[in-house]
Amino acid sequence: IVYLDGHATTPLAAEVAEAMAPYWTATGNAQSPHTRGQQAAAGIELARVQIANLIGAESQEILFTSGATEANNLVVLGVAEAARKMGLRRNKIIASAIEHRSILAVLEELAARGFRVQLAPVTPQGLVDLPALEQLLDEDTLLVSLMGANNEVGTIQPIGGAAQLAHAKGALIHSDLAQLAGKAPVDVVALDLDYASLSAHKLYGPMGVGAVFVSGIAAIKPRPLVFGGGQERGLRPGTLPTPLIVGFGAAAALADQDMMHVSQIQERLARELLTELAGRQVKVLQNAASAPRLSGSLSLSFPGVDADEIVNRLSSTVCLSTSSACSAGQIASSHVLKAMHISDKDARSVLRIYISKYNTLEDIRFAAAQISTAIGSVVVATGPSTQ
Ligand code: PLP
């Protein structure tokens, strides 16, 4: 089976599994004073340094969460509620129209709690429209949230530019780096970010662990979402999952080492997939083709083809995703493609691919052949009746 769904989750690296292994059995709570507790605490602190190094932060600016969803909630809800508690008059939160659901759903909640919420539009190439963002920014703006890279079309967003605009108006800036960190160089200091969210399972680490970066000089510390034993400086209490955190750290260190090499291979394979499809006369268009994108990320439109049908037909040979979310039997069009002015009809023909560092040339050739065959059979099966 060929796995090309790395935007959803990346395979666990063998080196990461190896680093985690001893921590499953040699158990100790990092808060306990004995040897096992100290070993757990040392593993966690090493991971904090490894993750901080990956994004140019200080280790004390990294706090562990269950993933990027929680990190996004913690920053956006937590900063809004902290500002309200401090009596700040700023009441508006801006995010891009193509954020992950874990930002958009938080914005809905904030709107219900009386905050003002606005979405900045994106260009047809899937990049936030900075002049439009500048227009939305005002003296009432508390926070801007702009993702590092998009999880459907792979576009790398101009977060440094957004940070400058936000700060010029006295607003704070958060970036959901779940898809960017570990895949392209990120320096939170050079980008001037106040907050960031990370997820281990998008960079060949384990599921169920992530982190927030809270800059030591951020004007507002988020208010916690849960209350308990004071871990993670009281911002995110609860016993830390040592094996997962150790794995997250190992994955960050590995990504730091092999990022350039890996992205070159991914880009070569992505080009190969397009060449193979063209060679098989498959009609395909690449979305966001001229925008800066993650290496190995492809959003492909197959005009007239139902992408869901392709994903289903190939489910046991090639793991792919569509860009649309299916909920309660209804196919909802992707908010990302919609924001890029792609029609609902065209959006239904889009396959989302992320070629991981473990994919080979044989994988890509096999996938191209399978996609081509599936499209041929779908088109024949659904084409006009000859009778
Ligand atoms: N943000 C982005 C951009 C993502 O792609 C994802 C993953 O689906 C998330 C947040 C959520 O991450 P997690 O699965 O760690 O909660």
Automatic annotation (TrEMBL):
Cofactor: pyridoxal 5'-phosphate
Entries under PROSITE patterns matching the protein: AA_TRANSFER_CLASS_5
Keywords: Iron, Iron-sulfur, Metal-binding, Pyridoxal phosphate, Transferase
Keyword Metal-binding among record annotations: yes
EC number, UniProt record: 2.8.1.7
GO terms, molecular function: cysteine desulfurase activity; iron-sulfur cluster binding; metal ion binding
Top-rank taxon, per record: Bacteria
Domain Aminotransferase class V residues, every copy: 2-364
InterPro entries with a match to the protein in the record: Aminotrans_V_dom, Aminotrans_V_PyrdxlP_BS, Cysteine_dSase, PyrdxlP-dep_Trfase, PyrdxlP-dep_Trfase_major, PyrdxlP-dep_Trfase_small
Transmembrane segments annotated in the record for this chain: none
Function: Catalyzes the removal of elemental sulfur atoms from cysteine to produce alanine. Seems to participate in the biosynthesis of the nitrogenase metalloclusters by providing the inorganic sulfur required for the Fe-S core formation.
Family: Belongs to the class-V pyridoxal-phosphate-dependent aminotransferase family. NifS/IscS subfamily.
Protein name per the record: Cysteine desulfurase
Species this chain originates from: Oharaeibacter diazotrophicus
